[in-house]
Amino acid sequence: MTIAFGGRWDLAAVARQDAPLRALDAAGASRAAIDISALTALDSAGAWALHRLRTKLRAQNVQADFVGGKEAYLSLLNRLERPPRAAPLVPPRPNIMVVMLARLGSGAERALSESIDIVGFFGQALATAARTLLRPANVRVTSLLVQVEQVGLNALPIVGLLSFLIGVVLAYQGIDQLRRFGAEVFTVNLAGISILREVGVLMTAIVIAGRSGSAFTAQIGTMKVREEIDAMRTLGLDPVEILVLPRLLALVLTMPLLGFYADVVGLFGAAVSTMLILDLSPIQFMSQLREAVEIKHFWVGIIKAPVFGFIIALTGCRYGLKVKGSAENVGRRTTQSVVEAIFLVIVADAVFSIVFSRIGY
Amino acid sequence: MDAAIRVKGLKTVIGGTVVHENLDLQARRGEILGIVGASGAGKSVLLRTVVGLNRAVAGRIEILGQDTGQLDSEGWRRLRTRFGVLFQDGALFSSLTVGENIQVPMNEFMDLSPELRDEMTAVKLDLAGLPPDAGAKYPSELSGGMRKRAGLARALAVDPELLFLDEPTAGLDPIGAAEFDSLIRSLQRSLGLTVFLVTHDLDSLVAVCDRIAVLVDKRVVEGTLDELLANEHPWIQSYFRGPRGRAAIGR
Fold this sequence. Notes:
Chain A is mainly alpha-helical. In chain A, 74% of the residues lie in helices and 7% in strands. Chain A has a 3-stranded parallel β-sheet with strand order 1-2-3.
């Protein structure tokens, strides 16, 4: 029998004719000629369909051969002589229970190795800091000042706006709840103590973790990807001293200042609220504040600021140095660094709360 | 002979710098045209402009007989099924396996049965010289040379008539580069492709290109190797007559 093909025999044509072609049967013939002399175009899909047809006929003990056709077509058909085996395109998916167990195990293992890594990097940073600060001439002043500007000065607008709004919100909530007891004026106590002790510094730390901690990871991570860190090492420079230390010092120094600023702006927000709703004059607000809030509340808040700064800088830099390979990894490490920095800041805050309540502050 | 690519009076500006000015270029159907030029001369920009990733400031670009300046988005979509592009490092989608990468253009442009699609994927892997089990691997599990082959398989997915290659042999060892050259040559012969090959590699230039277009002074000087060897332009002279050029040409 003869099976003749003509015209354009390309992927679109194969897609249309695939079903009848697959259903084609030798119908008892012992010889078959696949006539391709009328073809005007043949691409790899068309060649594959013809090749598949011949293979199938031969498997049915039919002597099938191509007849006619340009030389180019025959050479394309010959290219497919090594029949491609269809292999799975997606790796086999393992059992879901196994996957979950494996995930649990690797999570636990990672938590452990992360903890060790944190302690190790903490020690390395402290040792480098001690070594450098003993010889103050080695402190990179320019780099430090640039970092102070970036993490401190440039953060003022966002920290200020958020603190102001938090002050407004706290005062509003306080007024609403305390009005039921006719004790609206104690809103000042509520807002004052919570801003000074907790919220002012904590909000600042969260904003700085999102703003500066992420920037540290991205900056150092990008340098790592471009092998700049390796270049530094081969030049005998210590990346911890040059990159980590200025950032660490900058955040430890600026966080108390930012925390103080956040306290002031937050109290200002509370004052504006009480003034608008309770008709409390700024003078009355101040005197109520002085009466209700001791200075120790301010110190309890502000003493946490450098610790939070240290945690954020350490986490940001550590993840930056952990970046491996590609730009994609920088993004992933940055996300992880912000999440971990905020987590550690809140854990540290809880520890501070317990300690202060134990020593009766 | 009709042209697969015809560029007339092209002008491109990137970031305020004029990269090409009044550039004319022609790639004939069924030939491999090599594009060379100094680093920063705008080879990749030229490729990106021709395939429509950059906008030309002035000039006319015809691909497979269609003026790309006149095409609407549907016209571009149909034209894109007729050419394939291989980017420098393959540019495979990292969240998909190699096989799924090859199927992306098939799913996008063609209505194929799953069975035929899988068969065609296997054919493309084979054409690009990859083993069948590479289809199930993710791009990150492949070596640089295999990623390029996988990128080539994806560029060939819907059987284009025209293939754009951006420095296909950059970053390959000499053996891998030579293999890739001969792969391109044999694919071009058996599939009747027109190839637009941007390269830095003198060896592949000599080994596979029918004609060469040299980017100098924001324009193109086209010709066969022999014609360019006779060209007086100082950059062309030092490119082909320099120690590396002489070694590659072997005369």
